[in-house]
Amino acid sequence: MRKLVLLAIVGLAAQLVDGSLGMAYGVTSTTLLLATGAAPAAASATVHLAEIGTTLVSGASHWKFGNVDWKVVFRIAVPGAIGSFAGATFLSSLSTDSAAPIMSGILLALGVYILIRFTAWGTPRGRLGKPVRKRFLAPLGVFAGFVDSTGGGGWGPVATPALLASGRMEPRKVIGSVDTSEFLVAVAASIGFLIGLGGEGIPVGGVIALLLGGLIAAPIAAWLVRHIPSRILGSLVGGLIVLTNVRTILNSDFLNASFAVRTASYIVIAVVWAGAIAWSLRAYRAERAEVKAAEAEPVAA
Predict the structure, then answer these.
(1) How distant, in Å, are the alpha carbons of 165, 243, 275 from that of 279?
(2) TM spans, by residue (predicted)?
(3) Is-contact 174 155, C-beta < 8 A?
C-alpha cells in the first residue's frame, strides 16, 4: 500500500512538472519503476498506460485555458503515434544506452540555446505566430515517438525544445500542444506494448496509482503554464533540459564521471539556472513597468 501511495505522489509531481514545462512525466515515473525492479519494457508500458488518462485530462485542461495549437497537434501526433507504436512493438527489448549520450548531447545543445535565448532576449517575436512547417513536424513526431516508447519517456524532452527553438510558438502553446498530442502517442505505445508483452509483468496497481496522481495535477499544471510569464517559463524549461541531459551524459558508460565531478557539475548548473530565472524575473518586471508607464502617459497628458 505504501508503494502505491508513493507512486501516486510521484504521478502527481511528475504531471505537475510535465503539464507546466512540457516534459518529465515519463522520465520521472519510469525511473522510479525501474528502481523498484520492474523490467524496462514493463516499466515503459506501465507509464504509457497511465499516460492515456493523464494526457487526455491534461490536453483538455490546456485546451480550456487556450494553450493548444490544434494544427501542430494534428501534424505531430499522428507521426508520433507511428514512431511510438513501432518502437514499442519491435524495439522495446533493445537497449538504448549507447545512443543516450548522443541524443542527450543534441538535447543539451538545444537546452543551452533555449536558456540563453529566453533569459537574454525573452520570447522570440521575429517569427512568433508563423506556422510551423509540416516537413519539420512529421520527422520530429516520428523520432520523438520512437524515443518515447523505447526509452520510457522522451516525447516532451525531444518535442518541446525543438518547437521552442523554432521561435514560432509561445512557450505555453508549445507545452499545451505537446501535452495534448501525447495522448495519441501514449495510446499507440500502449497498444504496441500490449501486443508485444501480452500484459505480462505490467502492474495494474502501479498504473492506477500513477494515473490518479496525474489526474489531480493535470488541470493545476494547465492553469499554471498560462500564468507563468513566457520569458520565465523559457528559462525554467531551458534549465531543466540542460540539467536532465548533463546528468544522462555524466552517468553514461561513455564518460562514467566520478561522484565529485557529477556533484560539482550539478551545483554549477543549479547556480546558473537560478541566476537565469532571477534575471528573467527582473527583466519581466522591468518590461511590465515600461508597459504601464507607456499606458499611463496619454492619461497624464
Answers:
(1) 20, 18, 6
(2) 72-91, 98-116, 136-159, 204-225, 232-251, 263-281
(3) no
Q: Please give the Cα distance from 12 to 18 (Å, whole number).
A: 10
* Alpha-carbon 24 to chain mean position: 5
Residues in the chain: 301
Query: 163 lies in which domain range?
Result: 2-300
Output DSSP code: residue 125: -
Instruction: Yes or no: say if 177 and 132 are a contact pair by the CB < 8 Å rule.
Output: no
Q: Which residue has the cell 525544445?
A: 161
Among residues 141, 147, 148, 172, the alpha carbon closest in space to that of 51 is found at 148
Written as tens digits, the pLDDT of the chain (301 aa) is: 666 676 677 667 666 666 666 666 776 677 666 666 666 667 777 777 888 887 888 788 888 878 888 888 888 999 999 998 988 876 555 554 555 566 567 667 777 877 887 788 765 555 555 667 777 888 988 998 887 777 666 787 788 878 877 777 777 788 888 888 988 998 998 888 888 776 666 667 777 877 777 777 767 766 766 677 767 877 887 787 788 778 878 877 777 788 899 999 999 999 999 999 999 999 888 888 887 887 776 654 4
Number of domains in the chain: 1
Question: pTM for the complete prediction?
Answer: 0.64
3-state secondary structure 264-287: HHHHHHHHHHHHHHHHHHHHHHHH
Let me know how many helices (H) and strands (E) the chain has, helices first: 11, 0
- The residues, any chain, with a CB within 8 Å of residue 234's CB and separated by 6 or more, are 114, 115, 117, 118, 119, 122, 123, 164, 171, 280
